[in-house]
Amino acid sequence: MTVDPSEELTEHIGALRAFAMSLTRNSATADDLVQETLIKAWKNIDSFQPGSNMRAWLFTILRNTFYSLRRKRKREVEDTDGSLSLSLASKPDHDGRLNMRDFMKAFDQLPDTQREALVLVGAQGFSYEEAAETCGVAVGTIKSRVGRARAQLADLLKLKDDEALELTDRVTAGIVSHQSIA
Amino acid sequence: MSNKNRKTPDPEVAEEIDRNLKRAFDEMAQEPLPDRFTNLLEQLRASGGRSDEASNDS
Predict the structure, then answer these.
(1) ipTM over 0.90 threshold
(2) Nearest by CB to A35, which of B14, B26, B40?
(3) Which of A106, A113, A147, A161 could cross-link A156 (Cys pair, CB 3.0–4.6 Å)?
């Protein structure tokens, strides 16, 4: 019994949008990218090995599309309007030390290659091997990108000591007061 | 390596970073799908495009 591939595709659109956002940092560009990815996936669905990881397969298509579009649009100014952090609820994270918006702002500053590596491994739970395959690089490269991404985030967010606590409180207070004005 | 060597963050810090990223990611992934995507899939399904599989269900 064949499962309609579009049914399974649908399940991954949310994750594709999130991955696209993390690459493009722009919601409009991200959704264009997802659209293109879905069309390509549909056309090439026969090359998908049933039973293998469809999300990884789709992420690979999305990623390749992103880099080829970007090469074409090289002249355009990269529009990173911070929508990655803006798209998220601005409420502070009460169960941790980090404020989500600050966190995503810091994340936005990482190089493309580090963002994608950390998203795949840290957020999506890909193994280093799966992430390496998705990005077309060696496993060691992924490991080092993930390591550098975490180190840089820790740096940016000053996660080395209890400073982060104070910072979060201060920023949270700022956001709350800003919201009540708006 | 020409980069200055950053210290590897504590496992605890790495975990916290991943946890936050996962939360952000899940939050984005769970946003309601814009109509353009459901429409797109319908369109793709309708157009077939896969000659080897006749649409015997509709």
Answers:
(1) no
(2) B40
(3) A106
